[in-house]
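Hi W.,

Here's what went into the run:
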Amino acid sequence: MVWSFLHPLLFLVILTVVYAKFSQLPNYPLFALSGMIFWLYFAGSCTQLSNVFIKHSSLLKSLNISKTLYALSEQGAELVNFLIGIIIFFALMYLLGMKITWNLLYIFPIIILFSLFTFALGLILGSLNVFFRDVGILWVTLNQALFFLTPIFYSIDIVPAKYVFYLKLNPLYHLFFIIRNVLYEGVTPSIRHVEYSLVATIVLTLIAMFVYRRTQNGFISNL
Amino acid sequence: MAETVIELKDVSVSYLHNKRGIYSIKDFLLKGAIFSPFEHKSVLQNINLTIKKGETVGIMGKNGEGKSTLLRTIAGILTPDSGVCKVSIEISPLLALGAGLELELTGIENIKIFMALCGKYNKKTIHDYIAEVADFSELTPEQLQMPVKMYSTGMVSRLAFSSAIVTDPVLLMIDEVLSVGDEGFQKKCKKRINDIKNSGATVLFVSHSTDAVMEVCERGVCLKNGRIICDSTSEEAANEYHKLFTN
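Here's what came out:
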């Protein structure tokens, strides 16, 4: 409980101290914070899910319940943490100068979309990790890379123009773009980026379903 | 004639395995198994088995010949590749050594989780169950307050076995649990299994101890290479099992 908001808070302090000096963005703490809570939710869920079937292997082997339930419960726990965090941080954001408007309500459908994206990725990692035990290790590195490749603590404006195209290939970029629309700028989310996010989430969900269906029968013999 | 509760017709089960030597993305890339890193390994082949209500069946066979797989298929944890597996009674969680125990949690918490998993969790009765488990397992209150990771193997099996039998299961599946407990506890367990048997429940019993099987079960099944080679009285199955090791 305490960690669900202390963690982003400490992160925020570090980022603010280190980056606020270089950043030209107005109200940098709010900018970093709005990205950070979502990032921590994403990274936390994916890391937990990448390990979920291995962690619950003894139950999986002895109980006939749907395997997705284990994954859902892990994601659910992270979601609860995140929601507690976001309620506390709404207050903090208000103090940091966030405008309270009806537009803020857009964050709820975005949370649902974001959760689905996270769950799909986590399920892929979790399913593959059963067969290839270094997927979890790889994910730790990839997670770190994604953190820097997604504009979370910096704005895409500071990226040299020739790299911008590649950065935009990252689906997280679009998700974080609409999160920023709502939480930082206080406007309605950009339709174009909502579309990109939707497509990315649907594609990833289909891949997750394929990978899970293909591998789930082999979980028990490999755990 | 008692009704049939478990019916397996031509059931074959295979496992999805990593190909030999490919256990990580690293191997995958270095050894170049680009087409498919998986292969199927057949475990059970054309199993036909009919079990009636109230029967006690001992299942024997060498290590890795499909005993646990057979139980898991009956429990619905594994889906057969072909054939039909019909089970018409309620299945309690498969009882393997320490199955479903959360190592970080205490004994009491694990009992609660176990009851919840069996669908028997109820604020009113849970204390009776805990008392009953504590009584049967002979674990002291201090031990029950300890995290299960600090338990010895015998204590784990005591806890697991006790939790499973106090729920009055209709279908009890025991996978190699008794061998760990000490003599006193083994006797107690056998007596309890007999009680459960007499109450009309069906018992499936996997063990390497032919004595235990003959003592507990009337019927015996012996598995070899994923096939049933003997389905008869427990004495005959035990003989078959012994033969596996003589030649």
